[in-house]
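[job 4471] stage=fold_predict status=RUNNING
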Amino acid sequence: MDTATTELEPVERMKRFVKAELKRADVTYEELACRLREMGHEETKVSVANKLSRGTFPATFFVAAMKAIGREQVNLSDL
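[job 4471] inference complete, writing structure tokens
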């Protein structure tokens, strides 16, 4: 397995996990951005969409997003 493929797999899994959690919570990118702004993060619908499209975002964004949608616990084996 080449290194590029190995590095992309966790990125793709993380991106899919966040998108699935948003869908499960029935939260749109716009709503997530609004909730994150209420928590003190400078996010817009476009910035959220870009982060999730790329699949590359800081852990702080991941944690804030999970908290914003009410997901208090994440098991790393789910990622």
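[job 4471] summary: The chain has a mean pLDDT of 90.
[job 4471] exit 0
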